[in-house]
Amino acid sequence: xxxxxxxxxxxxxxxxxxxxxxxxxxxxxxxxxxxxxxxxxxxxxxxxxxxxxxxxxxxxxxxxxxxxxxxxxxxxxxxxxxxxxxxxxxxxxxxxxxxxxxxxxxxxxxxxxxxxxxxxxxxxxxxxxxxxxxxxxxxxxxxxxxxxxxxxxxxxxxxxxxxxxxxxxxxxxxxxxxxxxxxxxxxxxxxxxxxxxxxxxxxxxxxxxxxxxxxxxxxxxxxxxxxxxxxxxxxxxxxxxxxxxxxxxxxxxxxxxxxxxxxxxxxxxxxxxxxxxxxxxxxxxxxxxxxxxxxxxxxxxxxxxxxxxxxxxxxxxxxxxxxxxxxxxxxxxxxxxxxxxxxxxxxxxxxxxxxxxxxxxxxxxxxxxxxxxxxxxxxxxxxxxxxxxxxxxxxxxxxxxxxxxxxxxxxxxxxxxxxxxxxxxxxxxxxxxxxxxxxxxxxxxxxxxxxxxxxxxxxxxxxxxxxxxxxx
Length: 472
Fold this sequence. Notes:
Layout: H1 6-16, H2 60-75, H3 81-95, H4 114-126, E1 142-145, E2 158-160, E3 165-170, E4 173-178, E5 184-189, E6 197-202, E7 208-213, E8 218-222, E9 227-232, E10 240-246, E11 249-254, E12 258-263, E13 270-275, E14 281-286, E15 292-297, E16 302-306, E17 323-325, E18 332-337, E19 344-349, E20 355-360, E21 365-371, E22 376-381, E23 387-392, E24 399-403, E25 408-413, E26 420-425, E27 432-436, E28 440-444, H5 468-471
Antiparallel strand pairs: 1-28, 2-3, 3-4, 4-5, 6-7, 7-8, 8-9, 10-11, 11-12, 12-13, 14-15, 15-16, 16-17, 18-19, 19-20, 20-21, 22-23, 23-24, 24-25, 26-27, 27-28
């Protein structure tokens, strides 16, 4: 539209004009000087015809902008969302949603603090609600005595079952502590000839528990009746320091360097073997999918085994590992599979290594390595946030909470006076139990507090041990 067509537009507007007030905008508008020399005094009254435009009330600069802006928009169609949002906000504040080119009444000038309001609104577009930082208690919620706990880095003497019962081996005796009631009971005391107990691990049903012994035997117990179901003999040539369940398969790792899969439902329980370690196997963890097994040993090696590559006992060939990592400079005991990324494994090295390393078990790549400054004894992932908890030995004997993947320290929990050898996580994922060589068992609310305490999940694996009466 050019200047000569204003009268034509005025005639068209007169035919289409609706009976509504001429001032449509609400709120403030910036004062922009007009090309007209007419007075813009807000106190002066100006009466114009409702159908004839008033040149003294028109803002020619604004009219020019409104006429040319659509053309500029077509010339630059690929503006970023942020720039487009800023442009709309700028137009809203400066134009105050004015879309008319012709004016029929004078309007008063507006406040001049528009730039302050504009900056505040622009900042509000980019502002994100800050997540409230979780309070992490620096002291243990509860401390229990753990006399005669074996001070041995290579053993695994603590586990927390799905029925909310914690098991701990103290010397030759396995104790059960019910977290719901706080009651303690004795499961079994092993004879001196077979003890001490070197490992404990709950089955997925939370009722049955495996107990590894210094004599190389592995016992299976029913915790509800304190009844010995069976003993696995002849699997290893020396003590069994690590255990891991994969549904009905109990995987055992021994000082002889062997890793054996035992199907607890059948009489001939040995079904697969993994051979790759030259010294004691001190760490075993199955992935959440049950397809990959991580094993760490005193030979500083970390292996990833795949179920599809396991060799049967009858075959003469050796089982080939999927990955073999030699990056750690000390024994690898601390292992933890990530709950939110199935192919991510964290591993921790002993006193000569002191590092936490992260692995992509699909590609075999080492994603990161962090020097913690002390022996890494145990690792636990949070089930609710991207956080990792590590327990350490000399010099601070602390628990350290890390933010993943930045590995920024979120908290250091002190209280133990000797190396924190073992950790276990409650079924709801909020509480962590730690056992140390100072003969104490401490409970930490390190991963938060549940809003409503969930009820213990009912056992869904009740058929795993049904055939034991027939086996014996």
